[in-house]
Design a protein that fits this description.
The chain is built from 15 helices and eight strands. The protein is of the alpha/beta class. Helix 4 packs parallel to helix 6 and helix 5 runs parallel beside helix 14. It is globular and about 65 Å long. The structure holds S-adenosylmethionine. The site of S-adenosylmethionine has 21 residues, from helix 6 and strand 2.
Length: about 400
């Protein structure tokens, strides 16, 4: 078993990418990639906050096992998920056991992923509602730890993913190869110079696409997908990559094959760009918002039956409301000028935020409503049962990950 200090942890038998392989492939691709595209496909928010976006040793990937949703586990369990169904608990146990085994095998110590698994269970719950029970072809943008992909793979969906952050990309590659026994189709390896077709893999398969391959291929690809998913990332992007991703997604969801077509998100991410701008970018790319309850947001391709009874952008709202909004915006600007002059932080830009929206006349919004109603009363697995499972698996009652331990130490 490799020790945590060892740098060369790559399991070549599984086709894992080494740090050096990824870096070299990216470097070679950058020779051919326009500077504007390189700038667009940077993890801009991670750079802004100094979050470690690259690793130099494989052993560092241990730190990416459970990130992004620190200290939210209990609250999410009750507020967001409202408990788990038996089926969800089975999947949580299966996936968490795989994560723990992965951590032991690759880094020499056990670890759990609680919050990130839980959040993605919530997304999976909604993907099931939207898919009406049949495994769809899903493309995920910015998968982070990759646990949604892992669940979709275990559930027999066809799954592809693109990410821009070297550390997350390597973590995804290692973990997905570990759980699929090396079945990941990895486009960061031997990507060459010619664009590759981004074909959805066989059910239960994973296609892994680095950002430079996405830039080369996504707009040219005729390969159909059914769902594009992007959680906690859209507002964290450079606006040019957002525009590129939405345009590509519209194209990849264009097939008229009778299968559902939607862009789904569970959160917008840190506000590097505003909600207003991100929403407008969707409409500009040919999407209509059809459901937004603060937890799950769904856009459908405009002009298709999936977009029936969708929400119109505010410029379609009556003149009087637009006038009132305009006056409010001017007032807010005026107050901000004064506040800035007094060294106070400006008020947030509230000029437009997409409202909550549910429509019984829209197939997706209705499916979410019906799915939730059908599951009422079936979430019989409580927090104690889940915590008992973690304690047995980990052999410890302290379930916090290293980031959470650090953050709790900061508390007064
Ligand atoms: C805050 S994390 C969220 C991760 C995961 N989706 C989740 O909900 O836990 C943002 C993710 O988006 C990725 N990302 C940031 N900018 C991106 C871009 N332009 N294209 C694709 N992925 C991007 C990051 O590398 C990271 O995986």
């Amino acid at each position: 078993m490799p020790g945590p200090g060892q740098t060369s942890l790559v399991d070549a038998r599984l086709g894992e990418l080494s740090v050096a392989e990824y870096d070299q492939a990216e470097q070679e691709a950058m020779v051919q990639t326009p500077n504007r595209a390189i700038m667009a496909f940077q993890p801009v928010v991670f750079h802004q906050y100094g979050y470690p976006a690259r690793v130099r040793m494989g052993a560092e990937l241990f730190k990416y096992i459970d990130v992004m949703h620190d200290l939210r586990f209990e609250e999410d369990f009750h507020q967001l998920l409202g408990g788990l169904t038996r089926e969800e608990f089975d999947l949580l146990q299966r996936l968490t056991t795989l994560i723990c085994r992965f951590s032991e095998a690759r880094f020499g110590r056990k670890a759990l992923a609680r919050s990130s698994v839980l959040r993605h269970l919530y997304v999976l719950r909604h993907i099931r509602y939207l898919s009406g029970g049949r495994p769809l072809r899903v493309l995920e943008i910015g998968p982070g730890c990759g646990y949604l992909g892992a669940m979709l793979m275990l559930e027999g969906y066809s799954y592809a993913a693109m990410d821009v952050t070297q550390a997350f990309y390597l973590y995804q590659n290692w973990f997905w190869n570990f759980i699929s026994d090396g079945q990941v189709t990895e486009l960061a390896r031997d990507s060459g110079l010619a664009p590759r077709e981004m074909t959805a893999p066989q059910p239960g398969g994973i296609l892994h696409v680095p950002w430079w391959e996405f830039v080369r291929s996504a707009l040219r690809s005729g390969a159909p997908f059914d769902l594009v998913v992007c959680n906690h990332a859209l507002c964290e992007m450079h606006r040019d990559s957002l525009a590129f991703i939405l345009k590509s997604a519209r194209r990849l969801l264009d097939a008229q094959d009778g299968r559902p077509k939607a862009f789904v998100l569970e959160g917008w991410g840190a506000r590097y760009i505003s909600l207003s701008e991100a929403t407008k970018s969707f409409y500009r790319a040919g999407f209509t918002m059809v459901h937004n309850d603060g937890g799950i947001i769904v856009f459908a391709p405009t002009g298709t039956s999936w977009a029936t009874n969708g929400l119109r952008l505010p410029h379609h709202t009556p003149l009087k409301r637009r006038y009132v909004r305009g006056v409010r915006r001017l007032l807010r600007r005026g107050i901000n000028v004064v506040r800035r002059a007094m060294w106070e932080s400006p008020l947030p830009d509230m000029s437009y935020e997409p409202c909550e929206y549910r429509a019984s006349g829209n197939p997706f919004s209705r499916a979410i409503h019906e799915g939730r109603s059908a599951e009422r009363g079936t979430k019989t697995v409580g927090l104690e049962q889940v915590n008992r499972f973690y304690t047995e698996l980990l052999g410890s009652e302290n379930h916090l990950n290293p980031d959470e331990r650090f953050l709790t130490e900061l508390r007064p």
